[in-house]
Input
Amino acid sequence: MKLKKLMVITAAVSMAASITACGSGNNNNGGNAAATNAPADTTATNAPATNSSEAVTDEVLPEEGASLVVWESKEERVFAEEIAKQFTEKYNVPVKIEEIPPPDQVGKLTQDGPSGLAADVILIPHDNLGKAASASLLLPNDIFAEQTKAENTEASIVGSSYDGELYGYPRAAETYALYYNKTLLPEAPKSFDDVLAFSKTFTNKDQNKYGIMWEVGNMYYGYTFIATTGGYLFGKDGTDKDDIGLNNEGAIEGLTAFAKIKEALPVKSGDISADIKRALFTSGDVAMDITGPWELAAYKEALGDNLGVAPVPTINGKQAITFSGIKIFGVNAYTQYPNAAKLYAHFASSKDAQLTLNKMVGSIPTNNEALADPQITGDPYLSAFAEQAKSSQPMPSIPEMGNVWAPVNAALPEIWDNNADPKTAMDKAVQQIKDLNNGAQ
Output
């Protein structure tokens, strides 16, 4: 399968060729929907796009009395609060931050947008864009379109666009890699066979110590065991909803290897969360963790020079393929303050903002100048994410991608927790996806 790998991975790989770049919700009321519950009309306020970001920003002013609600992830709230503070100081627009997991935001926007309870600016993985854009839930990125395209990697622009229209304001490129504790193993394992061999000497369930841990019930990570050995999603370029390879021979081969790794991690999938995993890894009770750059800052603080990052180990001798994605801001089509919301999305995804996000959280910029900044090029950990990004695949962004998560997130725990036959579990998941794609409720 070819999913425009090179083009989309440019978001994580375009660092001047030398380095590749990559909570629980609180509903609150604070949305700013227009009183008519109709999408915002911004035609009269849109300033013409130019090649100068400062010039356009100077021409766009927030609406009088504007205030904003922004949905952010729990893990990146510290960044959101800093950027909101800077934005308020510059534009005199108050910003309220609400914690909503990015994968949940489009679903919540679908429900809360027309009723006036949604945020003005949301943060979503690019694979959710098609669903939001096709439902007219987002305003196009029109005022800042030319600047966004000129300042960011081509791949991030692809990920921020749907059906030829730019909607998103890209702020980070992501894939995942292997974190390891050098005090427990000096070198990263090359294969999952090596992971199992090490874990036999380290894993002790009674002492809550494990050789490796990741969110085994989450398809975002589980896709590695599907794609590496030949499984795939939505056929050519990730656009054919009727071509689903999640249960083909290659996928079952990889998922059989997935089930075997339970020897290293004899824990129910529901007992593994990001918070639990983080606590065990930083305390030295988990030797290896598969996760993304959003954990980098916390892990560096906890382990210092004893932290290592490496590509995901091979599976059955094949280089591991990971999911990759672009995290983007979007502007709620029902906002009362479209100018202020677009200004915030642009401001919070600028070069300086992306460097701030990298410093505070560890994310990988999409802004070309940020990618070339010494803060990024001089970071030894990013090279591991860069290497992994070369063999990653972008998540499909067609609306049907939303139908994949629940069935596969049910199948993986069946395989892991209940020793279900991988073929049986995945056949069921694929049928559920097909039913959903064809309109089943």
